[in-house]
Design brief:
Largest sheet: 8 strands, parallel, barrel
Strand order of the largest sheet: 1-4-5-6-7-10-11-12
Number of helices: 11
Subcellular location: Cytoplasm
Number of domains: 1
Distance between the termini: 13 Å
CATH superfamily: Aldolase class I
Protein name: Imidazole glycerol phosphate synthase subunit HisF
Helix content: 25-40%
GO molecular function: imidazoleglycerol-phosphate synthase activity; lyase activity
Structural class: alpha/beta
Number of strands: 12
Keywords: Amino-acid biosynthesis, Cytoplasm, Histidine biosynthesis, Lyase
CATH architecture: Alpha-Beta Barrel
Mean pLDDT: 89
Organism: Actinomyces bowdenii
CATH class: Alpha Beta
Length: 256
Amino acid sequence: MSLAIRVIPCLDVKDGRVVKGVNFQGLRDAGDPVELAARYDEQGADEITFLDVSASSEGRSTMMEVVSRTAEQVFVPLTVGGGVRSAQDVDRLLGAGADKVGVNTAAIARPELITEVAQRFGSQVLVLSVDARRCPAGVSTESGYEVTTHGGRRSTGIDAVAWAVRATELGAGEILLNSMDADGVTGGFDTEMIDAVRREVGVPLIASGGAGRPEDFARAADHGADAVLAASVFHYGTMTVGQAKEALRRAGHPVR
């Protein structure tokens, strides 16, 4: 029997408030993270992802107090990322109430961080966040997709598919694949990118970036996503977690 497709609201947090923009630009306030997390828990979210979107660019750690307050109100698995640079950071986040921890920028700078975390806490704790885009002019990779950092503001020239493969070999237990081109645009997930990574990676794959309609979630699952993540469509009332799950169910995908 197939595993249930998970629906995951994402709380992008800056200065203690949930924010959302388009392609990580023009961020606007979307509410209190604790209140939103509790709402999504009530709606039937399978997990909640909490990302401090300014942690890496501003050179500071994830706000532990907000993580702790959110964890107290949420009774589904909580993934936390943003500014995670060491196994000690992971230890502190798990202590604050996180179930899984996302790494991104620091793992690109020092890939052995993935192995250190996986060996100490287990691969199931580690989610590699890949902020990928189609290669712009002047950048070329074999897959046609490039990894970016710092909220999509910095090019790395690293092949996104090859990086996902390497990270799983190093110990990453899940891949959170975020399309920077589609982020906040609500035109649908980048299914070609999902296909490219799914062909090469066997660990659970979370599709992120672009959800606009309930049917978009089903389409991502059709292309091999094990979980579907969204932010603005949930924050601004475009749809509920239940409506996303109903679309998945109608398309023949098992949900909880």
